[in-house]
Amino acid sequence: MTPSPNGSAAGRSPGAPVPSPTRPVPGLRDFYEDPTVPVASGEARSLRQARMLADALGPAVPGSPAATVLDVGCGDGSAAATAARVLNGHRIVGVDWSQDALRRAAPRLSQVVRGELTGGGLPFASGSADAVLFSEVVEHLVDPDSALDELHRVLRPGGHLMLSTPNLAAWYNRGLLLAGVQPVFSEVSLRRIHGRPGSQVVGHLRLYTARALREFVAASGFEVVTVAGAPFHGVPRPLRPLDRLACRLPSLASILLVHARKV
């Protein structure tokens, strides 16, 4: 039976009873405004990413304008606060569309701004940012192509994009797939976890391997400078040394860290 455009079933006889409407299922916006949904990145990978950016920007020079760094999808501000420790003298602006996230980020950052990657776009002029932190965001997006287009727009020529995301091909996911188990980081429902280890739903819609991520970023108008690996705080403690070792080969690491420049 084919659903009609208004959602009812086509072919129902005129006199048949109409079922009562069900309660609408919460959308993605409702999901991310839920204060119980995690909005923080792990400190270890946030620090690695910040150090990569600090190396790219160099130290702030007295008498010269500070670099403007946008933390797009800042969540609770913890990643930007970690970055601030190694980006002394540079200006960090937290950006998120979730009002709940911005309330949590405000005590940690000197400036927070509400902005979206879709619709009207980010509230910044083209070429106004020296760098963008994009930590654990791309995996949550319905339209990642438009998102990277918008980040490309706000960056100055040669500006830096620091993107991090879980690795679909992490060392343990390869073993899980061979055993017929749903990979870690992947989710088939916004209500609960099915078929894989873990219990926390965080709203992942897309996952990347190192090769796919490199190609995707390059196709969006960026030159990929480097791809590095970072550990995942959710790995069981006995396996964490192995997880840190896997970071030496980014294609096996839990988290992918990409440094790219606008061309």
UniProtKB/TrEMBL annotation:
<protein>
    <submittedName>
        <fullName>Class I SAM-dependent methyltransferase</fullName>
        <ecNumber>2.1.1.222</ecNumber>
        <ecNumber>2.1.1.64</ecNumber>
    </submittedName>
</protein>
<keyword id="KW-0489">Methyltransferase</keyword>
<dbReference type="GO" id="GO:0032259">
    <property type="term" value="P:methylation"/>
</dbReference>
<keyword id="KW-0808">Transferase</keyword>
<dbReference type="GO" id="GO:0102208">
    <property type="term" value="F:2-polyprenyl-6-hydroxyphenol methylase activity"/>
</dbReference>
<dbReference type="InterPro" id="IPR029063">
    <property type="entry name" value="SAM-dependent_MTases_sf"/>
</dbReference>
<dbReference type="Pfam" id="PF13489">
    <property type="entry name" value="Methyltransf_23"/>
</dbReference>
<feature type="region of interest" description="Disordered">
    <location>
        <begin position="1"/>
        <end position="30"/>
    </location>
</feature>
<dbReference type="GO" id="GO:0061542">
    <property type="term" value="F:3-demethylubiquinol 3-O-methyltransferase activity"/>
</dbReference>
